Amino acid sequence: MGEAMMDDSKHMHLESVDGVESVLGMKWIPEEDCFTYSLAVRDNLQELLNDSRVPTKREVLRIVMSLFDPLGLISFVLIHGRILMQNIWASGAKWDDSINDSLFHQWRSWIDLLPCLETLRIPRSYFSFIPYDGQKELQLHVFVDASASAYAAVAYFRLETTNGIQVALVGSKTKVAPLKMISIPRLELLAAVLGCRLLNNICSNHTLLISKRHLWTDSSTVMAWIQSKQRKYSQFVAFRVGEILATTNIDEWRWVPSKNNVADEATKWGKGPNVSGNNRWFRGPDFLCQLEERWSPPSTFITNTEELAAVNYHEQQHQLIEFERFSRWERLIRTLAYVHRFVENIRNKQSGEPLELGAVQQKELIYAEQKLWMQAQVESFQNEIAVLWKTRGSPDAFHPTVAKSSTIFKRWPFIDQYGTLRMRGRIEAASWATFDAKYPVILPRKHYVTFLIADWYHRQYRHANQETVINEIRQRFEIPKLRVLPAKVKRQCMVCRIRGEMPQPPPLGPLPDVRLETFVRPFTYVGLDYYGPLLVRVKRSNVKRWVALFTCLTIRAIHLEVVHSLSTESCVMAVRRFVARRGAPVEIFSDNGTNFKGAHRQLTQEIKMRNQTLSSIFTNTNTRWNFNPPAAPHMGGVWERLVRSVKVAMEGLLDARRKPDDESLETILLETEAMINTRPLTYIPLESAD
Fold this sequence. Notes:
By secondary structure, the chain is an alpha/beta fold. It folds into 4 domains: 15-119, no CATH class; 126-294, Nucleotidyltransferase, domain 5; 365-497, Orthogonal Bundle (Endonuclease III, domain 1), CATH 1.10.340.70; 514-677, Nucleotidyltransferase, domain 5, CATH 3.30.420.10. The chain contains 22 helices and 19 strands. The chain has a 5-stranded antiparallel β-sheet with strand order 1-2-3-4-5, with no helix packed on it. Helix 2 (57-64) runs antiparallel to helix 3, helix 5 packs parallel to helix 7 (235-247) and helix 14 (448-460) crosses helix 15 (466-473). The protein is elongated, with a radius of gyration of 55 Å.
């Protein structure tokens, strides 16, 4: 409880030597009530100011930071030291490395100015005399300026009384320009923002009644940005202009010529700053000492578009008629022709001219057709039309070229006197060719109008070959990648779709049980079909012979028998020969032929009669004959495919120049049978890797 309270507050202790108060090089002389500066450095750094030794980066920083100027009274000198320090940083020098020759030259030029600061005497009081009874008006003026190296703002009080006008320096703020390259107008805008902050700081820290505030800049671009009514600038400009307008009024900003802008003293080196008491930096510009009526009047600046932000907009042109509502070209043309007639009749009615009545005329159809072309071109070739529109007219006249990125660049386009985009060719000397053939109309391939035109040609030539449609279209129109369009029209044409549509094949049913039997002898289940007729030579005449094909439904082997006729007796004999050589089958499958039915009926009767010859064949084996339904040849595909294989094999064996006899035919059938039965049923690989 008895301990003394510790004082944690921080105070700036002023050193007093011979009645002069000093802090960090800034001194106050009470007797004269003015400020002065002295460069107080250590002995090891004092030699840098006296001799020509090249300093290091660390030593330069110590000298630059040894001067204390909180009010910015001598910032027009100190800012060049900071610029020098920035250049040293940009050179890549390390802390204990000596600076290069070019920087050393700048160093010596700046160091030579520092001793002159000790001769300055800056009054602490703004004004030497303020009358109490005279009418007075206090104004605050802030000047801003920027260069590629720095930007600055300096403020002055202007006191106007009955005894005269007094101008006093209030303070300034300076900043080094960033290393990243920034345009001068943007730096001028940064200086304007710095001036606004300085103005508000002065107003908030003074109790003086300020009647007027003025901010001066010599940048017409900044004035245009501030006075602009549109706020569509880029973010850099928009945010800073917003801060300026939030803290100041537009009418407080005025333009000043560069020769009268005192902020130039801090931003431009020139021949070197004038470090003396008569510098205009301390007394302000000369025109402030004049009456306000003699100042240059406020100017209006044209809006600057340099920093306007890019704004994307969508331009939509409303069609007079919705093209998508029409499915045919001729209907669209006639409808548009009647619409244009209606519009013209309204105009004629107001002007007292006769109305157009009756059926639509040819000139109206031609006009409607041209309008449809132009509408399709405007919607697809806007940039090209903008380039060629000024030179529309004859194809022989001069026409500029469109951009190389355009899809019609190689078409050598031009716009005729009616506003239609056409292609120039090399047949203009052909007297027999029409104007459309010499200079075809350019149309976009993906536009609906172009689709309707191609559909009209497609129907006009009765859904014929696409090459015919392409040839006719090229007589009048030039369409990029034209061959794609007729193909699209044909795909969407209902007539062509119906003509070219194929019936959907039904899914294949499961295989019959007899096709999947296992562990049975060959020809247990047999399919029977006829192939022929074949002409054979008997003496001097040609007679017909047929081939009965028996196929095993399990292993797909075949047996061939020569049949002399299509009668039931011949069929029965062929079956008996087959049974004698291959054995009696369990089931026989065949088409629903009359001869097969007869054979089945006769065999059934013979079984019932127990004929000694047939009973030994059929009764003991329980043979059954199955017929496919009528008009169902697909159910016999298993033997129809083998019929084709037999035909192919026999073509290689038969001599086309002469007909075989019965003996040769039987030999050929046996060789064909052997050839078919030795075929591989699966894929046989030739390499071990397969």
